[in-house]
Write a structure and sequence with these properties.
By secondary structure, the protein is α/β, with parallel strands linked by helices. The protein is built from 17 helices and twelve strands. The strands form two sheets. A ten-stranded mixed sheet has the order 7-6-5-4-3-2-1-8-9-10. It has a two-stranded antiparallel ribbon with strand order 11-12. Helix 3 links the parallel strand 2 and strand 3. The two termini are about 25 Å apart.
Length: about 425
Amino acid sequence: MDDRAMTDKEEHAHKQHAGAAQGIHVVAKPMGPVCNLNCEYCFYLEKQALFGPGEQYRMSDKVLSAFITNYITSQPTPEVAFVWQGGEPTLLGIDFFRRVVELQRQFSGVKTISNSLQTNGTLLTDEWCRFLKKNNFMVGISLDGPREIHDRYRRDREGKGTFDRVMRGLRLLQKHKVDYNVLACVARDTAKQPLDVYRFFNNEGVEFIQFSPVVERMAGACNAQGGLRLAGPASLDKEEAQNEVFPWSVLPEEYGDFLIAIYDEWVRHDVGTIFVMNFEWALNAWIGNPSPVCIHAEQCGRSLVIEHNGDVYACDHCVFPEYRLGNVVGGSLAGMAERSRQSGFGVSKESSLPRWCRECKVLEACRGGCPKHRFEMSNYQEPGMQYLCPGYRKFFMHIRKYCHAMTQLLENNLPVSYVMKAAKGPLVIKLDEK
């Protein structure tokens, strides 16, 4: 957030997200759930159980061509944002992504096309980074913080820490001036060291950060029998109500305290130099704009996932047989998204909110969070309350005075960075009293 609240890069990304909210947004898993790491809290590695032995986890040229053509032609907005995730997509090699760029090029005069790559960073090389820079890829690199925090959960298949390899990848991105951001997962132990995490990123020259809470519920009997130990949305687990989370899941209030501690440091020292997307989303909601991310949007259902074999699912957290919408070869992505919405999947995010949420002072910022995490009972003893509710509520209530101050600055065409002076002086008290 600079003096205009967004950098040009962020504004471009914001427009992409806003367009995707009206059209469709697809996350591609061209390598499926295959990864060279074995992160303890990863919810996607176990998806191999859905495909069986002998599966070739590599998106074929037939599926890739169908996906690129289908996605671009199905998208009503002028911009089409491709997001490549995994597993670990760099396992496919650079030639796969050279083919991606080649297939996209035939539509360059029709749509504005962008690419994002989410990676653990361990396989990045100079050659990779030259390619990513040349083709304007935005790279998200997974890094949880300093060595002792990162290596607590993010290990390889031999149980070794991955911090040094990830940092080497980060250095290469910086060396080649590749646009990147850091995705930091906040697990239970991580949440206890907020400033250690934030200051580490600051010292390493990281400007764009997103904090993602780790919450994984144990599967009930129906899913566990299918080889999956992690549960999806609570509505899937119909045979056995289950709200027990794995021990590495972040505790709700501790997640709120984690965000608050970082926000308090950021709002006093780093507005305009470090961009924490969680804080951007909160200000966006305060101003009254639609959420650029599905987590805090009123409804969901138009952010699909395509697996390596072309199968399309309703959501990244809904890669279960019950949520399969079809296949991109011979099927329309726009039609699949519409069927998902008509089934009530996206609308229910809003319509199923418990009374506790509907009466909440921070509803417009939170919107009940991700449906996957709505497995608690509300204070009115209603089902479907967000597991992270106490943390979200605490955080959003805490930052209201700052969001109010920043909104006033924007309305008066003043630099948003002025909020840092307010945060250190008596103006904070005045704004709080309002």
